Amino acid sequence: xxxxxxxxxxxxxxxxxxxxxxxxxxxxxxxxxxxxxxxxxxxxxxxxxxxxxxxxxxxxxxxxxxxxxxxxxxxxxxxxxxxxxxxxxxxxxxxxxxxxxxxxxxxxxxxxxxxxxxxxxxxxxxxxxxxxxxxxxxxxxxxxxxxxxxxxxxxxxxxxxxxxxxxxxxxxxxxxxxxxxxxxxxxxxxxxxxxxxxxxxxxxxxxxxxxxxxxxxxxxxxxxxxxxxxxxxxxxxxxxxxxxxxxxxxxxxxxxxxxxxxxxxxxxxxxxxxxxxxxxxxxxxxxxxxxxxxxxxxxxxxxxxxxxxxxxxxxxxxxxxxxxxxxxxxxx
Amino acid sequence: xxxxxxxxxxxxxxxxxxxxxxxxxxxxxxxxxxxxxxxxxxxxxxxxxxxxxxxxxxxxxxxxxxxxxxxxxxxxxxxxxxxxxxxxxxxxxxxxxxxxxxxxxxxxxxxxxxxxxxxxxxxxxxxxxxxxxxxxxxxxxxxxxxxxxxxxxxxxxxxxxxxxxxxxxxxxxxxxxxxxxxxxxxxxxxxxxxxxxxxxxxxxxxxxxxxxxxxxxxxxxxxxxxxxxxxxxxxxxxxxxxxxxxxxxxxxxxxxxxxxxxxxxxxxxxxxxxxxxxxxxxxxxxxxxxxxxxxxxxxxxxxxxxxxxxxxxxxxxxxxxxxxxxxxxxxx
Lengths: 332, 332
Prior knowledge:
Two copies of one chain form a homodimer.
Chain A: H1 2-25, H2 36-48, E1 63-66, H3 80-92, H4 105-109, H5 118-129, H6 134-147, E2 149-150, E3 155-156, H7 163-174, E4 178-186, H8 187-191, H9 194-198, E5 205-217, E6 220-231, H10 237-245, E7 252-255, H11 261-268, E8 275-280, H12 301-310, E9 313-316, H13 317-320
Parallel strand pairs in A: 1-4, 1-7, 4-5, 7-8, 8-9
Antiparallel strand pairs in A: 2-3, 5-6
Helix pairs in contact in A: 3-5
């Protein structure tokens, strides 16, 4: 009886081994075209996970950081969180008849977004994304993400996630990397979808954050979002956020714009193994083509120069990605 | 040959199982006296980890938060980080001859600490703990902790950690809890010793934090600590810090003072399983006895009332802890 159990155990072990071997033999990055970037990524992972390699990195130091807008999902023609804020204005308008004549709300209601300044957006954000509990905010964001659609692709925003980046995240996790989002976008907004869509847990989501106020409602404590900045997690705020939340430097970092420059520099300064990558949007047919001239996701010439000088990998969406969106596989 | 390998595997499996069974049979909290608190803690862990229990909690929701000063280590007669700051003033004094007459430094140098106000300490903190890189700060703290001694116990401060709390942390980790420090003390100060002393990784250390400035030194980026608050992680700042760093409510929380009240309320409001505990310093012989009247680690009468009303467990150091410090075992 006992001996039989052992045989079952042994069979199980073989099965496990065979599954693993066949798994490892599979391409971990099927949506990436063969080429130097894919090769570099796989070589890096192989080396830092190989105990016999001089490039070996212990699992606790395998920190991977990913920017969100433009790196993980579409950021054109406007950041998704901005569109959410604009839609909130329309939704809240019936309770605010004064907005018909009050700027910037009047322009938003007239769908005349072109003249909105940074200050206008700040006002819109304060009005639409503060003064409620963190939980209520996340519910609103989740409800909106379930129905709102991007006009060009006619897809939900969470369907506009780049499949090659999801594969890169999974590949790193399978190799015992801790995967973080490090975004200039709002932490609570990203937390409303990233655990489900990216499999990144709440505590690994670093983003722009505002303070909360501890209050009671029906004797239960709640945190109310208030318009006072904790951290702006963009540009030099990215290393600052990484230090605050993680306390150590990444060994691999993915970005796509000038906002990620300091995160990549920070990664490269870790004194050990590192790989820095930038997604370049050069595929107008399948997604968008933009760079130095774009206000959203600026990829300046000086960033390109720094990338070339410092050996940062520039991912061409056009050439390096076989598939961009998972819905392409459904034949849409 | 292959069959032999299988037998080896099987033998290994049995060994593993036997070791585990014998391990589980051991007391996970040997420094705790038998009694209702120890029983409650073990019962809680048994229930939330038992898949067949209606109290089962999935591992990703097993969040445990621990206050630091007075909960993990001695906080009397003054918080350790304060003593570090005062010692820094003495160390820096030769470069600041003007301090001989300038307050609050003159008082510090005369070891006349009794009149130092909150504002004085703020000035001392800004002078001694900002204007340097995060790495340099941590090195200074580590060097100091290696040599500085508590005058009463004549031990290094990291030797004044409560053994029963280390056991509680280990016990929770062994049961797949994620253990966090949530402290009103400085995040960088705690990060300088907690990974080694508590086995809590850097990213699980939540504390009071100040901003950093991204600059370059010899072409390498560095973060310089600047006197601008990110978050004050005390009182209502604790739920705020927990939300910012973890994004979900704890299921078990340990504190020892009025500064932990909101963290315990926040834990209790999680809508599921929860256990809230407060260390009460009532052992003048082995440690200290203090409570409502103490400026450091105030345990007010209203906190005691809230604890009794809401079923928070009050740990008596005198009665619930068999051993307080690990050096007691060495016969010191």
